[in-house]
Design a protein that fits this description.
This protein is an alpha+beta fold. It has one domain (about 25-200): Rieske [2Fe-2S] iron-sulphur domain (Rieske Iron-sulfur Protein, 3-layer Sandwich). It has 4 helices and 14 strands. The protein has helices at about 35-40, 60-70, 90-95, 105; strands at about 30, 40-45, 55-60, 75, 80-85, 110-115, 125, 130-135, 140, 150, 160, 160-165, 170, 195-200. It has a 5-stranded mixed beta sheet with strand order 2-4-5-6-11. A hairpin with a 5-residue loop joins strand 9 (about 140) and strand 10 (about 150). It is globular and about 45 Å long. About 40% of the residues are buried.
Length: about 200
């Protein structure tokens, strides 16, 4: 059975999503269901023989990666990143706008986004109901491709290059590429439904 089998994915705790956050701002209000935030699919942590964080992480074949990330991004624990399946209709626009180092991944329909919010470094979960990434700490919201749409984030979500070796997908977790600038609208697609996180009231 493929290592991508969803039955092997581990849930994460919503209570731990903002561990280590700092700053004086009040936390965001979680408005989505706890299930949407707590049951984040992940790839199991590395076992013997897998490379440590900072080295390219082999996350499977191209076909397995696209199939597994289709619909809902997958959290790759060993790379501390989200693997996103890119709609073929969006590839050309993203190639024209995003850093050249992301192009190999985009050409095979994949994008790897850092788990860290560029605001204060909280881990950003994926909200199933909205189809966006939403930070539980201060309410920043990012589209499926990491573009900033709301909240105090200074830019879009940072990304990691995807390297292709034969038919294998390797996430270069040691290289971090700054996310899209504020106001960037490469793929203009609204949220699919209710948000999981609302910005804190001032």
């Amino acid at each position: 059975m493929s290592r991508w089998s969803r039955r092997r994915f581990l849930g994460t705790s919503a209570a731990a999503l903002c561990a280590g956050c700092t700053g004086s701002d009040e936390p965001a209000v979680l408005s989505g269901s706890s299930r949407e935030l707590a049951e984040t699919p992940t790839i199991p942590p590395p076992g013997p023989g897998l490379l440590p964080f900072g080295q390219p992480i082999d996350v499977g074949s191209i076909d397995d990666g696209r199939d597994a990330a289709d619909g809902s991004p997958l959290f790759v624990a060993e790379a501390r990143a989200w693997l996103v399946a890119v709609d073929p209709a969006d590839v050309e626009a993203l190639l024209a706008d995003l850093d050249d180092r992301l192009h190999d991944g985009l050409r095979v329909g994949l994008l790897a986004l850092s788990q860290r919010c560029p605001h204060l470094g909280c881990r950003v979960p994926f909200c199933e109901s909205s189809g966006w990434f939403e930070c539980p700490c201060h309410g920043s919201r990012y589209t499926l491709h990491g573009e900033h749409r709301a909240g105090p984030g200074p830019r879009g979500m940072d990304a990691h290059p995807i390297l292709i070796d034969a038919d294998r997908v390797l996430v270069d977790a040691g290289t971090v590429i700054d996310g899209p600038a504020l106001g960037s609208v490469v793929v203009d697609r609204p949220a699919a439904g209710p948000h999981c996180v609302e910005p804190a009231e001032r």
